[in-house]
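It is worth pausing here to work through a concrete case rather than discussing structure prediction in the abstract. The textbook approach is simple: state the sequence, then state the predicted structure, then interpret. We follow exactly that order.
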Amino acid sequence: MPETDELGRWLATSYAPAYRTACLILRNPADAEEAVQDAFLRVWRFRASVPDGDGARPWLYRVLVNACCSKLRSDRARQAHAAATEVPDLPGTGPSPEAIAAQAETADAVRQALAALPEHLRIPLVLRFYAGLSEREIATAIRRRPGTVKSRLHEARRRLSTDSRLAAFVTATEMDQ
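Step two, the predicted structure:
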Protein backbone atom coordinates (compact mmCIF):
# COMPACT_ATOMS: atom_id res chain seq x y z
CA MET A 1 0.00 0.00 0.00
CA PRO A 2 2.57 2.56 -1.13
CA GLU A 3 0.30 5.47 -2.01
CA THR A 4 -0.45 7.93 0.78
CA ASP A 5 -3.87 8.68 -0.75
CA GLU A 6 -4.72 5.00 -0.76
CA LEU A 7 -3.61 4.70 2.87
CA GLY A 8 -5.77 7.72 3.75
CA ARG A 9 -8.82 6.15 2.10
CA TRP A 10 -8.14 2.89 3.91
CA LEU A 11 -7.91 4.75 7.21
CA ALA A 12 -11.16 6.62 6.52
CA THR A 13 -13.10 3.43 5.76
CA SER A 14 -11.48 1.21 8.39
CA TYR A 15 -11.29 3.45 11.45
CA ALA A 16 -14.90 3.15 12.67
CA PRO A 17 -15.09 -0.67 12.37
CA ALA A 18 -11.66 -0.96 14.00
CA TYR A 19 -12.80 1.26 16.87
CA ARG A 20 -15.98 -0.80 17.43
CA THR A 21 -13.89 -3.96 17.38
CA ALA A 22 -11.43 -2.54 19.90
CA CYS A 23 -14.31 -1.40 22.15
CA LEU A 24 -15.71 -4.91 22.20
CA ILE A 25 -12.33 -6.47 22.91
CA LEU A 26 -11.21 -3.96 25.53
CA ARG A 27 -14.63 -3.03 26.99
CA ASN A 28 -13.47 0.55 27.49
CA PRO A 29 -13.90 3.34 24.89
CA ALA A 30 -10.85 5.31 26.03
CA ASP A 31 -8.60 2.24 25.90
CA ALA A 32 -10.11 1.32 22.53
CA GLU A 33 -9.34 4.77 21.12
CA GLU A 34 -5.75 4.46 22.32
CA ALA A 35 -5.36 0.96 20.85
CA VAL A 36 -6.83 1.99 17.48
CA GLN A 37 -4.56 5.03 17.30
CA ASP A 38 -1.59 2.84 18.16
CA ALA A 39 -2.63 0.31 15.51
CA PHE A 40 -3.00 2.94 12.79
CA LEU A 41 0.29 4.53 13.81
CA ARG A 42 1.93 1.12 13.33
CA VAL A 43 0.17 0.74 9.98
CA TRP A 44 1.61 4.09 8.91
CA ARG A 45 5.08 3.25 10.22
CA PHE A 46 5.12 -0.13 8.47
CA ARG A 47 3.04 0.86 5.43
CA ALA A 48 5.55 -0.79 3.10
CA SER A 49 4.67 -4.13 4.74
CA VAL A 50 0.91 -3.85 4.20
CA PRO A 51 -0.10 -6.63 1.81
CA ASP A 52 -1.88 -5.67 -1.37
CA GLY A 53 -5.47 -6.63 -2.09
CA ASP A 54 -7.38 -8.98 0.20
CA GLY A 55 -4.47 -9.40 2.61
CA ALA A 56 -4.66 -5.80 3.87
CA ARG A 57 -7.78 -6.23 6.01
CA PRO A 58 -6.60 -9.26 8.04
CA TRP A 59 -3.21 -7.55 8.40
CA LEU A 60 -4.88 -4.46 9.89
CA TYR A 61 -6.88 -6.59 12.31
CA ARG A 62 -3.76 -8.51 13.33
CA VAL A 63 -2.10 -5.19 14.19
CA LEU A 64 -5.29 -4.04 15.98
CA VAL A 65 -5.65 -7.28 17.98
CA ASN A 66 -1.98 -7.08 18.96
CA ALA A 67 -2.49 -3.48 20.15
CA CYS A 68 -5.60 -4.52 22.11
CA CYS A 69 -3.84 -7.51 23.69
CA SER A 70 -0.90 -5.30 24.66
CA LYS A 71 -3.35 -2.90 26.26
CA LEU A 72 -5.10 -5.75 28.09
CA ARG A 73 -1.80 -7.08 29.42
CA SER A 74 -0.61 -3.67 30.59
CA ASP A 75 -3.93 -2.80 32.24
CA ARG A 76 -4.85 -6.28 33.54
CA ALA A 77 -5.32 -5.17 37.17
CA ARG A 78 -7.41 -2.13 36.22
CA GLN A 79 -9.46 -4.11 33.70
CA ALA A 80 -10.37 -6.70 36.32
CA HIS A 81 -12.13 -4.00 38.33
CA ALA A 82 -13.69 -2.11 35.44
CA ALA A 83 -17.31 -2.77 34.64
CA ALA A 84 -18.26 -3.68 31.10
CA THR A 85 -18.98 -0.41 29.33
CA GLU A 86 -21.35 0.38 26.58
CA VAL A 87 -19.99 0.65 23.05
CA PRO A 88 -20.72 4.22 21.98
CA ASP A 89 -22.91 4.81 18.96
CA LEU A 90 -21.17 6.27 15.95
CA PRO A 91 -22.91 9.07 14.08
CA GLY A 92 -24.82 8.17 10.97
CA THR A 93 -28.15 7.07 9.70
CA GLY A 94 -29.69 4.25 11.61
CA PRO A 95 -32.75 3.06 13.41
CA SER A 96 -35.13 5.48 15.07
CA PRO A 97 -34.70 6.35 18.75
CA GLU A 98 -37.72 4.17 19.52
CA ALA A 99 -36.12 1.16 17.83
CA ILE A 100 -32.85 1.81 19.64
CA ALA A 101 -34.68 1.98 22.97
CA ALA A 102 -36.44 -1.31 22.21
CA GLN A 103 -33.12 -3.01 21.43
CA ALA A 104 -31.15 -1.49 24.34
CA GLU A 105 -31.97 -4.19 26.87
CA THR A 106 -31.03 -6.99 24.49
CA ALA A 107 -27.86 -5.22 23.40
CA ASP A 108 -26.83 -4.66 27.02
CA ALA A 109 -27.35 -8.36 27.82
CA VAL A 110 -25.30 -9.36 24.78
CA ARG A 111 -22.48 -6.95 25.73
CA GLN A 112 -22.42 -8.31 29.29
CA ALA A 113 -22.37 -11.92 28.08
CA LEU A 114 -19.66 -11.09 25.55
CA ALA A 115 -17.59 -9.30 28.19
CA ALA A 116 -17.85 -12.38 30.44
CA LEU A 117 -16.18 -14.58 27.81
CA PRO A 118 -12.48 -15.24 28.27
CA GLU A 119 -10.22 -13.20 26.00
CA HIS A 120 -9.21 -16.16 23.80
CA LEU A 121 -12.91 -16.74 22.93
CA ARG A 122 -14.10 -13.12 22.89
CA ILE A 123 -11.55 -11.88 20.34
CA PRO A 124 -12.39 -14.38 17.55
CA LEU A 125 -16.12 -13.87 18.18
CA VAL A 126 -15.80 -10.08 17.92
CA LEU A 127 -13.69 -10.36 14.76
CA ARG A 128 -16.21 -12.74 13.16
CA PHE A 129 -19.55 -11.20 14.07
CA TYR A 130 -18.72 -7.53 14.64
CA ALA A 131 -15.80 -6.95 12.27
CA GLY A 132 -17.09 -9.44 9.66
CA LEU A 133 -13.82 -11.30 9.13
CA SER A 134 -13.84 -14.81 7.71
CA GLU A 135 -12.39 -17.69 9.72
CA ARG A 136 -9.25 -17.60 7.56
CA GLU A 137 -8.87 -13.83 8.08
CA ILE A 138 -9.32 -14.29 11.84
CA ALA A 139 -6.64 -17.01 11.78
CA THR A 140 -4.30 -14.51 10.16
CA ALA A 141 -5.27 -11.76 12.61
CA ILE A 142 -4.73 -13.84 15.77
CA ARG A 143 -1.95 -16.03 14.37
CA ARG A 144 -3.72 -19.32 14.92
CA ARG A 145 -4.71 -22.15 12.61
CA PRO A 146 -8.17 -21.97 10.99
CA GLY A 147 -9.19 -25.10 12.91
CA THR A 148 -8.35 -23.37 16.19
CA VAL A 149 -10.44 -20.38 15.15
CA LYS A 150 -13.35 -22.65 14.24
CA SER A 151 -13.23 -24.46 17.61
CA ARG A 152 -12.95 -21.17 19.54
CA LEU A 153 -15.93 -19.73 17.69
CA HIS A 154 -17.91 -22.89 18.39
CA GLU A 155 -17.03 -22.79 22.11
CA ALA A 156 -17.85 -19.08 22.36
CA ARG A 157 -21.26 -19.62 20.74
CA ARG A 158 -21.89 -22.61 23.03
CA ARG A 159 -21.10 -20.53 26.11
CA LEU A 160 -23.29 -17.67 24.92
CA SER A 161 -26.16 -20.09 24.28
CA THR A 162 -26.06 -21.17 27.93
CA ASP A 163 -25.58 -17.68 29.37
CA SER A 164 -28.46 -16.86 31.74
CA ARG A 165 -28.42 -13.18 30.69
CA LEU A 166 -29.41 -14.19 27.16
CA ALA A 167 -31.87 -16.97 28.03
CA ALA A 168 -34.82 -14.59 28.45
CA PHE A 169 -34.22 -13.07 25.02
CA VAL A 170 -33.94 -16.45 23.31
CA THR A 171 -37.27 -17.48 24.85
CA ALA A 172 -38.89 -14.17 23.84
CA THR A 173 -37.60 -14.55 20.27
CA GLU A 174 -38.92 -18.10 20.04
CA MET A 175 -42.37 -16.89 21.21
CA ASP A 176 -42.42 -14.17 18.54
CA GLN A 177 -41.96 -16.73 15.76
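Step three, interpretation. The mean pLDDT is 80. The two ends are 48 Å apart (CA to CA).
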